[in-house]
């Protein structure tokens, strides 16, 4: 009895390739690498990437495995792409090559659009640091998918460049740090600075001053015995200065 090919054991291709390929080029490289890895693991790679030295005769299970690889392709792309590549009597390699040609044609224009977006994105368009950094990292990943990779250094410097004036201090520190922190280190620093600034903004100024200023010292008790003595000695004490109340002299008996 012939041994069943490993490809037959795959029951849910989406658990192996969770990425759905769309017309957008941003996911093509990720989908491609996942698909190649899966085909290599389940002995279907020869059906989309012909070997340098192909065997003279195809194995008996070739057509069955080829149909399975085609199903994997059809199940992991969008309905719009499926309509584009679905043809009668197609093979897995034909479907694979059609997708490759389609995305290579769109690559240059997509690269220009992403480069413009990468250079013009600013933090003011987002609600917080995490959203801003996530968006910048996503654009960098999309550029890598169209064969225009962004170095970690360039990503960090572009993130710093897009910060608003509230982050001038931490931005200067990051730029002067040697070696320059990586993306995750910069995101962590900016997140901490964001938390510090938010805490400052949420603390009322009057409350902060009242908590910082010590209470005024109390006046010595003996001064309360004579209002005129209190008035004469006021300059010597830091307590609030108020004029003394007049003594209740009888009418016409003022000294």
Mean pLDDT: 84
Number of strands: 0
Radius of gyration: 37 Å
| Number of H- or I-type helical stretches | 11
As an assembly, this protein is: single chain
The end-to-end distance, rounded to whole angstroms, is 134 Å
**Quick one: overall form?**
elongated
**Could you give a short account of the major beta sheet?**
none
What's the structural domain tally? 2
Strand content: under 5%
Which residue ranges are poorly predicted, with pLDDT under 50 across at least 5 consecutive positions?
Answer: none
**Based on helices, strands and strand pairing, what is the structural class?**
mainly alpha
**In sequence order, what are the helices and strands, one letter per element?**
HHHHHHHHHHH
Helix content: 40-55%
Description:
Helices cover 52% and strands 0% of the residues. By secondary structure, the protein is an all-alpha fold. It has helices spanning 28-41, 62-75, 79-85, 92-105, 107-120, 129-145, 152-161, 168-176, 183-201, 205-212, 227-233. It is elongated and about 100 Å long. The protein folds into two domains: 6-105, no CATH class; 108-202.
Keywords:
single chain, 255 residues, mainly alpha, 2 domains, 11 helices, 52% helix
